[in-house]
Amino acid sequence: MRADFENVFEQPGGPKYCWCMAWRQLENREHASNDARRRAMMALIEVGTPVGIVAHAEGNIVGWCSVAPRETYRKLSQEQDDSEVGVWSIVCFYVPRASRGLGLASALLDAAIDHAFAKGARTIEAYPVDQASPSYRFMGFREMFVARGFHEIGMAGSRRHVMRLER
What we know:
Number of helices: 4
Strand content: 15-25%
Radius of gyration: 15 Å
Structural class: alpha+beta
Number of strands: 6
Shape: globular
Largest sheet: 6 strands, mixed
Strand order of the largest sheet: 1-2-3-4-6-5
């Protein structure tokens, strides 16, 4: 997992600025260097903390989805009930620019749903935005989640919809 994760993030255009630590606990998060973010993520992977999945196609790593137990992230919405158990969160997608528009985000979402339920999730929560949103687009688009049966339970801020899928 570690090598695949590093490969997707270190490729040209990869999100080396965040190392998928934007929604995770990180001391001095706003001022942490890219290297500090990378080290923090590698530490999570090394101890076996679920952090997400990578997509492979034709021998290449072509995408990433952060899907993990909600308690491994910092607070994702004001209404979040931390006493709930079995909630997994999907917080971001990365598909290289050259591969966008080919349905990889949808395939990653399908795989993330399967992964979370296979690992024991009772509920999957996501925080997508509307397609016209000027920010948080890395969290996915609302329509993609609706098409898979997610229902909206509220908002996180002014742009992010809080959506859930139960099985």
